[in-house]
Amino acid sequence: MGTDIEQSQKAGYATKDYHSPPPEPFLGIEELTKWSFYRAIIAEFVATLLFLYIIVSTIIGYKSQIAGGDDCGGVGVLGIAWAVGGMIFVLVYCTAGISGGHINPAVTFGLFLARKVSLIRAVLYMIAQCLGAICGVALVRAFQESYYVKFGGAANELNLGYSKGTGLAAEIIGTFVLVYTVFSATDPKRSARDSHIPVLAPLPIGFAVFLVHLATIPITGTGINPARSLGAAVIYNNGKAWDDQWIFWVGPFIGAAIAAFYHKYILGAEVVKALGSFRSSSHI
């Protein structure tokens, strides 16, 4: 290890000191006294509202075009995936410096498990995201009610031919990809080493959302965001949307938990550090 450092210094590379940031307070009650906290909640609400408005409008518009007999018309599944991924890229870029750019209860849950946000912040973020999603879908219905009702309201449902287990697995894996990308793109160790990492963070996050949608739209319509699924179900209020709703909460939360554990305890070697600390203290 010492040889590697000496060689890197000889090569002219300046190594940067890095210390892992302390975990956020579990409850975080003191945050309730800060305006920046409420500003972040507002940012999450507005961002999720805009996100749902764009993606539901895109889906409804595409279905209305192909229903008119033009099978080659509209943006297609590829276009829907680009719209979702692109909108996430834009919104994360806009809100990262204010709220962290979560826009997804599963992302917030994963960051909470990793002690990167407090419990109070996590809960209020999730509430703001769900309310924003409901309002975003409500705007689409208000502007395009006939098309909205006719073409299913863009509600997430398990598609024909797939079992509930398959749908659940698709949501778990898809959310794992997203939350793992979020952890990697916002890793403070990488930011300390490479100054361009924070600037580029929204790009891989948006691209991960794009790729997951390509893989899972045929299975579940792609949830990986409980607020997105809840907002569409509340406004559309159809039986099947509610029957499958649990998949779009249980799956993303499990996927986020696995991603948080993998990044923090496997890649971050927290288990090894803890064992090393225990062994060293046992010899004192």
From TrEMBL:
Query: Which first-to-last residue range defines the signal peptide?
Result: none
Q: What is this protein called?
A: Aquaporin
Instruction: Report a single Gene Ontology molecular function.
Output: channel activity
Q: Which family does it belong to?
A: Belongs to the MIP/aquaporin (TC 1.A.8) family. PIP (TC 1.A.8.11) subfamily.
The portions of this protein that span the membrane are 41-62, 74-98, 119-143, 167-185, 197-219, 246-263
Cellular location(s): Membrane
Protein's organism: Papaver somniferum (Opium poppy)
What does the UniProt keyword field contain? Membrane, Transmembrane, Transmembrane helix, Transport
What cellular-component terms does GO give this entry? Answer: membrane
Q: Name one Pfam family in it.
A: MIP
UniProt membrane topology term: Multi-pass membrane protein
Cited InterPro entries = Aquaporin-like, Aquaporin_transptr, MIP, MIP_CS
Q: What SUPFAM superfamilies would the database entry show?
A: Aquaporin-like (SSF81338)
Please name the CDD domains in this protein's record: MIP
- Which Gene3D superfamilies has this protein been placed in? Glycerol uptake facilitator protein
